[in-house]
Amino acid sequence: MQLVSFHLMPYRPLDLVEAAKHRSPWVVLPNRLYDPVKGAEEYERHIDALVYAEQLGFDAIGVNEHHQTAYGLMPAPNLIASALIQRTKTIKIAILGRALPLVSNPIYIAEEFAMLDVMSKGRIIAGFVRGIGSEYHSSGTNPYFSHERFHEAHDLIIRAWTDPGPFAFDGDHFSLRYVNLWPRPYQTPHPPVWIPSQGSSETIAWAADPKRKYPFLVTFSSADLVARYHNTYRDKARQYGYEVAPEQLGWACPIYVAETEARARAEAGPAVETLFNDFLRQSFEMLMPPGYTSIGSMKNFINMRRGLLGGGRATAEGLIASGTALIGSPRTVLDGIERMRERTGFGILVALLQFGILSDELTRRNMDLFAAEVMPCLRS
Amino acid sequence: MRNLYHDQSFADRILALTPDEAQMDLMLKNRFTVAKLGWQPRWFNPDLEKWLHRIKLPALVVWGDDDKIMPPANAALWRERLPDARLVMVDDCGHLPHVEHAILIAKHVREFVEGVA
User: Directed axis angle between helix A261-273 and helix A360-369, to 10°?
Assistant: First the structure.
């Protein structure tokens, strides 16, 4: 199993009481609540935690992109990736991912990934996402064209990485007379592409297509939903005429390991609750702007996810019981992972080992214990 | 939803409904189309104001005095910019005068149409 140590870089000094007076920590939370001096400390500590994953034997470090939110301070994840390249030697760096539809010219994303891939001598994993709904408010991008722009930007980037330049690209949303990348990517034919997703059926069908077979990562969902999305991908692959490999299915999950159940829950409980209640709090309209998915997917989402985001405060117990977070002794966490492996055969675990307000000290202990007690069993 | 209405009983009634499958499809289709057409620039294009003076036809501008979506100050601007406009400000009314005060609005529209026909 491939193991990714993933980070959101939340703004932990956030005044949660003050933040709760606002509609959401996304888009509308006044940025006077951000202190750049504390923010500088946060970047340093979060980057330290990411770099530490190499020493512990993880396969990759994961970063991601979100805009105008205290939930995550990486509006430009490639900047963090660049810093990580300088401080690591062998570990892969997964940018999970860049939001393709939000940019006016995706060639810049192709260029930045190519730069990072060359600078790291081929250690980059390129995640492509559409950006979550809130990002269509904070960027002004029309959600109705999200899928079209995503597909077109993807095609442009892949061609820019692989077709000899210069060539012309003429799309409905992006048109360039000259596409001619300097530098080209280090990896051949290009960095691996992964697709993190909230499970839209269109994205699953697109990622599973035999032309792509992109690894598909399910994020922040109950164990039942993760299994459902993985198996949707598997079924889709069968319809296409092939069997899914473990390395095509990924699961991104908050994980906390301590010596005992009680200690794990006591240490991680408040932090995981802040992740879901304070940092992830969004209205349905913010998360799912009209047109962001097909009408069918929107209806599925309304039926399945309203409980998670609109159904009152999430509790650590509830998140653990639903398998949305794995918190407990090494045995418990391992059992949770193995159960999912039995259900779906997934082969990429994206472990969120810092979440919410979890301190540096607890994060470090969590990473150490995960590496010592859980990782070896997943490798065997 | 609540910002659409002055009289919150309208919002209460709509929010209490559980739409069936067909209604859900219709609502989503409406919302998707609105987003497609109106997301960028966000719901209105301030640059179009400069063309209002070219609309020479008679116009009836109807505005709710408690419109929380497009504040009533806009109504005066429309009347000023349109060369031949009549303004009706509707008391105790939000963004949807034709819903909150349907009979009154129908009367104004009829009078206006008959007056210019």
Answer: 130
